[in-house]
Amino acid sequence: MFCTNVRVDRSKTVSSTIPSHRKGKRRRDDQEQAGQVEVFYPVNCVVCSAHLGVQDAEEVFHLYHVVASNA
Q1: Which pLDDT value is given to residue 67?
Q2: What is the model's pTM?
Q3: Distance from CA of residue 4 to its chain's centroid?
Q4: Alpha carbon distances (Å) from 9 to 14, 22, 24
Q5: Looking at residue 21, what is its pLDDT?
Q6: Within the chain, which residues score under 70 in pLDDT?
Q7: Chain-centroid distance, C-alpha 6
Q8: How many C-beta neighbours within 10 Å does residue 69 have?
Q9: Which residues contact 58 (CB under 8 A, 6 or more apart)?
């Protein structure tokens, strides 16, 4: 998806750890990824500077409470 009217703030970071899954069968991939830290960059509106979501290291936007429009 292409995003317009947003600004990615690369001077700040938001980090999150990947939780380990405790229920069910454990796979080797889950054990290797558990405890790793993911880094995200905050995404703000250009017009009002409201916090809209985050962008991950692969440059994928994760927007929260935003409605898509054609305007």
Answers
A1: 83
A2: 0.68
A3: 17
A4: 11, 34, 38
A5: 58
A6: 1, 18-35, 71
A7: 14
A8: 6
A9: none
Write the DSSP assignment of 38-56 as a string of letters.
Answer: EEEEEEEETTT--EEEEE-
Q: What is the pLDDT of residue 50?
A: 93
How far is 64 from 66, CA to CA, in rounded Å?
6
Cβ count near 44 (within 10 Å): 16
Given this model, what pLDDT does residue 20 score?
A: 60
The dihedral over CA atoms of 29, 34, 39, 42, expressed in degrees to the nearest 10, equals 110
Please name the residues in contact with 62: beta carbons below 8 A apart, sequence gap of 6 or more.
Answer: 40, 53, 54, 55, 56
66: closest CA among 56, 55, 51? Answer: 51
- Judged by DSSP in three states, 26 sits in coil
